[in-house]
Structure prediction request, 638 residues.
Amino acid sequence: MVTAGAELVSMCPWCTIKSTDERKRYIHFSACTTLGVPLAGVAGVKPTDTSNPDYFHKVVDCQWACPAHTDVPEYIRLIAQGRYTDAYMLNRESNVFPGILGRVCDRPCEPACRRGRVDEKPVAICRLKRVAADLRGEIAHRLPDIPKSKNGRRIALIGAGCASLTVANDLLPLGYELVMFEQLQETGGLMRSNIPAFRLPPEVIDDEINTIVNMGVDLRLGTSVDSLRALLEENFDAVFIGTGAPKGRNLEIPGRYDTDQIFVGIQWLESVAFGHVDSIGERVIIIGGGNTAMDCCRTSLRIGGKEVKVVARKPENMLKASDWELEDAIEERVEIVCNHTPEEFIIKDGRLTGVRFSEVEWYEDQHGKLRSNKLGEVVFPCDSAILAIGQENSFTFIERDIGLEFDKWDMPVVDKVTMQSTREGVFFGGDAAFGPLNIIWAVEHGHQAAISIHNYCEGENITERLPATMNLRSTKMGIHEWSYSNDFDPITRRLVPHVSLKERFKKLNIEVELGFDAEQAAREAQRCLNCDIQTVFRAPLCIECDACIDVCPVNCLTIIKNAPEVELRRRLNTPALNEAQEIFVSDKLPQTGKVMVKDEDVCVHCGLCAERCPTGAWDMQKSTLLISYAGQGPCKRT
Prediction:
């Protein structure tokens, strides 16, 4: 620590003392920072601009992490109150598919959840979303009105997956005519063909997709687009391409084409989903370590697999599969083997008998690049093998001479804000735009593409987006009473009930997760820390009595002389070490000229500071992020 302090300064930033002696310099520096000696020409942190919507938005870590910026705390409060339909409709404004995403979302919100910093387990945000979908009432009367008189604009949507459907959801209320082309006989894209029914029941997909289609989509199933050039010559004002990443990567090693028992995961899952495949060998090896590998191994167990192994090249901590997907596979007694690279499929008389792997160890070279050393070889016997080593896009229907550029990976060049390609009027979204991501990203792409398509058709600048705005509303109902539950509930995260291991393999479509019931959901909802209920501070009212500091249960408040941020963070009552989370710094306080500093990273939004404050300098206010959709000014998008 002495070395760190000495390296930081050659001259003390708090006064003009210089020293060539490293030890004396550090001792003096420590004394000055402890005493809070006024700065000599060193600027302190500027007061936090809480009028910028991004500041309070970043405090709501779950909403900030969600690509579609769903107001997670608000819909969780609605669930706690039993207002399931309201919670569902709030969800639907941003993510469009609450029932689907409540089961299979990649949950970027949960690792960000502040509750995880309190007791290591985040709120079960994703599964609470499912509760709102499962327990909601009728919503038809709450959907947007679709004008009978159209606006004369006609849009082509290629693919009936989540990105295209989101575009349709946003443009239909504006009077657009939408023609959706889908080469399969059913909607849903990879949601239906690649996510097994035991994770995502078809009736859930049908319900939420039909809600959009029935708003007026001209849906053409079993109709592939074989030429984008030909489509552009038809009477369409814009084209959106949401074809996903429907092609599984192959593995070109000896023996690959010498048997019919080696399958590509993406295509194999699709064949199972549509009833073309209903059996597999008893000994199955899945090559890969992502979520597709987890779906393949669990599906194998349901159609004849007895001994199923997932074999991955990388260590366990580098597998791409979500933690919960791995947990479910392990619970079903799938063996996970890491650090093995496939070398050869062993074929005897046209029959697959095993796969030869190299066992490897991984290390970083001098440039930080991951390298491997071969330790030996091993043969795992099997009757069938499934390749789940990644997905690729397929744009065989797009001619390369129509003004649409592709990069070195044969991906279209797409603007990340507007979703437009290098050819005007042609837009992309979802996996088709930037490669495999997840459903919630595809939904957000759809929202942004819809804004661009509308602007394009109206002759407006498609790069312009209305700035995000924010509402702040006090939750005060009395001197010590708030319109939200501010009690900290110490209960641990509730486990989602599952069908027993004995029952779940009887049919392919038995949904394994049962979901929370109303009582369980209410208890889990109480774990939410209400991070959208902001602690709003007004410096002119502060009398520096320290009452808020005394009562704060997590010691996140400090009244202190201002300083450069790196030092200010160190000198707080509890040092604010997470630099990814901004700290709140007030204007100068009227009594001493010091500043109130709050570490947003550890605040639990309990409201005790506001309850204890004798002058009302602190208040608890609900922040609501306002972002525009296609054809709208700022509207509630939470």
Q: What stands out?
A: DSSP finds 24 helices and 24 strands in the chain. The first strand starts at residue 154 and ends at 158.
